[in-house]
Inverse folding.
C-alpha cells in the first residue's frame, strides 16, 4: 500500500491529499530516509512523521493492521470474529487471537465495552420496548429485514441474505446497526429475531 494511502487509512492523517503533501514537503521518513507519496509500505517499516515541532513514530506491525496505531493513541480496538475459512476474516481473527483487539460477539458486548450500559436514554428505550408495528425510521433495507423476520420466528444471516437480496457482508453490518437500535436481537446459533 502506498504510504499516502496508509497514513490516511490508519487515520494518522485525515486526508490523502494532506498525506501526499506531507511526503512532498519532506515530513515523512521511513527507516530514516525521506520518502515520496508512492513509497510502498512494508511490514516492519519504521515511519516518522513531523508535525511542526512534534514527531510521530510508528512501526508497521506483523499483521499489517492499524491496531498498534490506534492503541498508541490510547484507543481500544474491537473486532467481530469472522469465519475461519474466509481470507477476508483473517485480519480480524488474527488481532483477536493476538489479544490486540477485544472480542465482540453481539451488540450488547459493544455497548458494555463502550460503558453505555447505564446510559439513561438507552435504559428508557429498553424499558419501554420497541413497537414492532410502527418503524418510522427504517431504511428500505431495514424494512426488508423486518419483513423477513416477521414471517419466521428466527433466521440465520445467510437465509436473511437470500430472502432479502442483501449481500451477506452488508447485511452483517446492517443487522449490527439494527441490534444497536433494539430492533433485532442475535440469539445462539448465529440466528436473529425481532425484539
Amino acid at each position: 500500500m502506498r504510504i499516502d494511502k496508509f497514513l490516511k487509512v490508519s487515520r494518522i492523517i485525515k486526508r490523502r491529499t494532506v498525506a501526499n503533501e506531507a511526503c512532498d514537503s519532506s515530513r515523512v521518513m521511513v527507516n530514516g530516509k525521506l520518502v515520496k507519496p508512492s513509497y510502498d509500505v512494508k511490514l516492519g517499516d519504521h515511519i516518522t512523521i513531523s508535525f511542526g515541532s512534534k514527531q510521530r513514530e510508528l512501526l508497521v506491525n506483523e499483521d499489517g493492521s492499524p491496531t498498534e496505531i490506534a492503541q498508541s493513541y490510547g484507543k481500544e480496538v474491537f473486532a467481530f470474529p469472522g469465519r475461519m475459512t474466509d481470507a477476508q476474516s483473517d485480519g480480524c481473527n488474527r488481532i483477536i487471537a493476538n489479544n490486540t483487539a477485544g472480542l465482540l460477539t453481539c451488540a450488547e458486548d459493544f455497548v458494555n465495552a463502550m460503558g453505555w450500559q447505564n446510559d439513561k436514554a438507552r435504559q428508557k428505550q429498553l424499558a419501554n420496548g420497541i413497537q414492532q408495528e410502527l418503524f418510522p425510521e427504517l431504511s428500505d433495507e431495514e424494512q426488508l429485514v423486518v419483513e423477513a423476520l416477521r414471517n419466521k420466528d428466527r433466521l440465520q444471516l445467510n437465509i436473511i441474505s437470500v430472502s432479502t437480496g442483501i449481500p451477506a457482508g452488508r447485511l452483517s453490518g446492517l443487522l449490527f446497526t439494527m441490534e444497536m437500535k433494539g430492533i433485532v436481537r442475535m440469539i445462539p446459533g448465529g440466528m436473529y429475531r425481532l425484539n
Summary: DSSP finds nine helices and nine strands in the chain.
